[in-house]
User: Fold this.
Amino acid sequence: MKLNELTLPKGSKKKRKRIGRGKGTGTGETAGKGTKGQNSRSGGGVHLGFEGGQMPLQRRIPKRGFTNIFKKQYEIINIKDLKYFKPGELINDETLRKSGLVKKAYPVKLLGEGEISDPIKIKVNKASQTAKNKIESAGGEIEIVSW
Assistant:
């Protein structure tokens, strides 16, 4: 027996039922939907979440919180993440993306977690005061560039 000689067992594959194709088919006239009523009509039925006229769950539950649509999002990096760069090397958006530390297209913010001993030059969109102090005490430079 070869792969091209394999066949499905008899009766395992049924033809789909074609509804609304005449009285002789057994599913003509009302097309298997019964007589009259909301669900027999074209486009009939209730929408998702409908509870028969009772106040739906999504309206019964109290609303909580607030989402600020003007919130600024930043890509966060810490000082401890900068240990992979060579001393004196200029670190900016481009080098951070190439290294994989920054993935999204948000502005970059530098935070002061971790220690640094080598002087580095870094250009970021925002930095915490702790991060600025640590970089400058190590002999490095930090430049804030506008977004």
